[in-house]
């Protein structure tokens, strides 16, 4: 596996001079803004109709500053985009650019594309300047701010923080949305819970901070009622603590338990003894009270079939970057799968590029485990199977984490807290 060679001096935060401290502070502030400000919505639920407003201009400004900073720091980052696996980012973004002329909304795709490129340019330089520990600490601060802000919006400004979802023709379900859609809040809660578990692992951060942060993430998961986020949080935590959980003793114990439990379960199930329990449980987990909602993956099977049909109509170049919201207008505005979403937006070639990144992650998690990022990647990989949680019109936490994790091993990032310099 190709890596980019960097000195130990480059991996530590540049704090040797006032200018170095200024650059470190600015880069850290931009990473924080990408995570928090690019996702926060202070206007509340204004419907699905797209409109340009002050928040969009503000997010675009953040992306513009990221791009400018990325250009100034290009000497630190350009090699990362020319070697594997960072080269996959280069190929994907280049292909997205090729598909722009075929977009059903060129101005929208162009703005989203420029934002993606601007933020991407900053990421490798920011990772090296801040160092692995501080970089993840800044991301954690942005995630926590989003959750705290969401609770303030939910409790104090319900016109912003309460999301009303039409379940049936007559029934409306109120969920906690906070500063975003409940599903986005759920994803941020999953990231927060897993990342603070990482920071507490090996005592990188005091448990007096870690435990309250993880509890806040878990409580928020319940409040926003994002079932996908609940599931992927469990997946992320399992990946973080896999060495402790999946020892030879625990695997043997689980196997023995399965041998003892499974036969009687099948016997009872064969007599129909569990039918009412299963049906009742599915109805309680569903939003509408119907078990069919879950057995069809909340209608996703129909969405996937429709998305595949639309992809087949324009398999080469798709419909334009981030235009799924227009093409899938009648089907939840996206394909509910990150690869299908990319195929719809940029054609099969773009989808294959994203799939190559996913395959690399699966390989790397197994062959070169890095617990500090593997759990976060697992959250996106697991959630991406049934939701379109990765790319957005303006890059925020998901894209930042995805690209950062892709570059993590390549840049040989260290996760130890920086030590004070000896005099």
UniProtKB/TrEMBL annotation:
Pfam families linked to this entry: Wzy_C
Sequence ranges assigned to domain O-antigen ligase-related in this UniProt record: 213-354
Subcellular location: Membrane
Signal peptide: none
Keyword Transmembrane helix: yes
Any one GO molecular function term: ligase activity
Keywords for this protein: Ligase, Membrane, Transmembrane, Transmembrane helix
Transmembrane segments: 21-40, 52-74, 81-104, 110-130, 135-157, 185-202, 214-241, 253-278, 338-363, 375-408
Keyword Membrane attached: yes
Topological relation to the membrane, as annotated: Multi-pass membrane protein
GO cellular component, one term: membrane
InterPro entries assigned to the protein according to its UniProt record, in alphabetical order: O-antigen_ligase-rel_domated, WaaL-like
Primary location group: membrane
Domain of life, per lineage: Bacteria
Protein name: O-Antigen ligase
Organism of provenance: Rosistilla ulvae
């Amino acid at each position: 596996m190709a890596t980019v060679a960097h000195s130990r001096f480059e991996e530590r935060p540049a704090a040797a001079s006032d200018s170095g401290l200024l650059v470190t502070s600015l880069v850290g502030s931009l990473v924080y803004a990408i995570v928090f400000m690019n996702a926060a919505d202070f206007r509340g639920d204004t419907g699905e109709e797209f409109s340009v407003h002050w928040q969009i201009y503000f997010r675009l400004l953040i992306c513009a500053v990221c791009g400018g900073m990325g250009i100034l720091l290009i000497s630190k980052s350009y090699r990362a985009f020319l070697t594997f696996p960072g080269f996959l980012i280069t190929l994907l973004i280049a292909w997205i650019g090729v598909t722009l002329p075929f977009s059903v909304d060129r101005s929208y795709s162009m703005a989203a594309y420029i934002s993606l490129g601007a933020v991407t340019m900053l990421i490798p330089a920011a990772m090296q300047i801040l160092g692995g520990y501080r970089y993840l600490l800044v991301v954690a601060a942005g995630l926590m701010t989003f959750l705290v802000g969401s609770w303030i919006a939910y409790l104090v400004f319900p016109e912003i923080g309460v999301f009303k979802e039409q379940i049936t023709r007559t029934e409306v379900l109120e969920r906690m949305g906070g500063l975003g859609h409940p599903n986005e809040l759920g994803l941020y809660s999953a990231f927060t819970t897993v990342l603070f578990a990482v920071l507490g692992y090996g005592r990188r951060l005091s448990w007096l901070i870690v435990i309250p942060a993880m509890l806040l993430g878990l409580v928020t998961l319940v409040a926003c009622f994002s079932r996908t986020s609940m599931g992927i949080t469990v997946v992320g935590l399992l990946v973080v603590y896999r060495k402790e959980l999946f020892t030879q003793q625990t695997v043997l114990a689980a196997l023995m338990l399965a041998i003892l439990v499974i036969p009687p379960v099948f016997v009872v199930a064969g007599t129909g003894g569990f039918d009412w329990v299963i049906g009742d449980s599915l109805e309680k987990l569903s939003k509408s009270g119907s078990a069919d909602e879950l057995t069809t993956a909340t209608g996703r099977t129909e969405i996937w079939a429709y998305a595949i049909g639309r992809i087949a109509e324009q398999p080469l170049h798709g419909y334009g970057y981030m235009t799924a919201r227009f093409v899938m207008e009648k089907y939840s505005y996206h394909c509910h799968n990150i690869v299908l979403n990319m195929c719809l937006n940029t054609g099969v070639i773009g989808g294959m590029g994203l799939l190559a990144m996913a395959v690399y992650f699966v390989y790397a998690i197994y062959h070169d485990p890095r617990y500090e990022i593997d759990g976060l990647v697992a959250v996106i990989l697991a959630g991406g199977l049934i939701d379109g949680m990765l790319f957005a019109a303006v890059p925020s936490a998901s894209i930042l984490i995805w690209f950062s994790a892709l570059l993590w091993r390549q840049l040989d990032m260290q996760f130890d807290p920086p030590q004070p310099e000896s005099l």
